[in-house]
């Protein structure tokens, strides 16, 4: 194999007839070799496109589930007090997944093609992730004491639930 220093361009040589028709091809370019590689590259390119389409569909499907740990940490940091900041966080925590649940088909419509195949499993994972976010918001409302879950919350004559046991930490335990 010749080294790169051995390459020279002979400007005085006559060009073959097929090179004049092909435009501005570089020296040493052969269309017969290029066509064979082009067919193999097309198959590889189609496989890569199918893989990327499936990967993109799974990225969209897993996005709600991936955001759950961050949302749980934000809910924890907001505290249990009933104030405007935690209430707005809970409202957005319910609103965004509900809006996403109503637009599942529109979300995956741009991803549907013959490369991705059926997106039913992706849609199910997307819905479960959004339901998990709504469940997290409901749990936050429960920890804030706003979720009516005892009979005394609904009935005026029912006595409120009393704690059976109280736990206190004394300075000797700390």
Structure, explained:
- There is one protein chain.
- The chain is mostly helical.
- The longest helix is centred in the first third of the chain and has 36 residues, at 31-66.
- The chain is built from 7 helices and no strands.
- It has a domain at 65-104 and 118-147.
- The mean pLDDT is 82.
Describe how the helices and strands are arranged.
Layout: H1 17-21, H2 31-66, H3 68-78, H4 84-102, H5 104-109, H6 120-143, H7 151-154
Helix pairs in contact: 2-6, 3-4, 3-6, 4-6
> How many helices?
7
Relative strand content:
under 5%
Shape: elongated
Largest sheet descriptor:
none
Our Rg estimate from Cα atoms comes to 32 Å
Low-confidence stretches: none
Fraction of residues in helix: 55-70%
The end-to-end span amounts to: 79 Å
Structural class by helix and strand composition:
mainly alpha
Order of helices and strands: HHHHHHH
- Number of separate strands: 0
Average of pLDDT = 82
List the main descriptive attributes of the protein structure presented here:
174 residues; mainly alpha; 7 helices
Short description:
The protein has 174 residues and is an all-alpha fold. The chain has helices at residues 17-21, 31-66, 68-78, 84-102, 104-109, 120-143, 151-154. It has a domain at 65-104 and 118-147.
């Amino acid at each position: 194999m010749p080294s790169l220093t051995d390459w020279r361009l002979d400007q005085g040589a006559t060009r073959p007839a097929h090179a004049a028709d092909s435009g501005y091809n570089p020296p040493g370019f052969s269309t017969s070799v290029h066509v064979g590689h082009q067919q193999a590259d097309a198959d590889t390119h189609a496989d890569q496109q199918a893989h990327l389409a499936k990967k993109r569909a799974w990225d969209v499907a897993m996005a709600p589930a991936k955001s759950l740990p961050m949302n749980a940490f934000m809910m924890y940091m907001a505290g249990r007090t009933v104030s405007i900041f935690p209430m707005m966080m809970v409202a957005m925590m319910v609103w965004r997944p509900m809006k996403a649940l109503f637009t599942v088909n529109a979300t995956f419509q741009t991803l549907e093609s013959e490369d991705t195949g059926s997106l039913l499993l992706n849609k199910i994972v997307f819905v479960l992730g959004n339901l998990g976010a709504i469940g997290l918001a409901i749990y936050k409302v429960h920890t804030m004491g706003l979720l009516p879950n005892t009979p005394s919350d609904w009935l005026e004559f029912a006595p409120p639930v009393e704690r059976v046991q109280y736990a206190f930490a004394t300075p000797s335990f700390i």
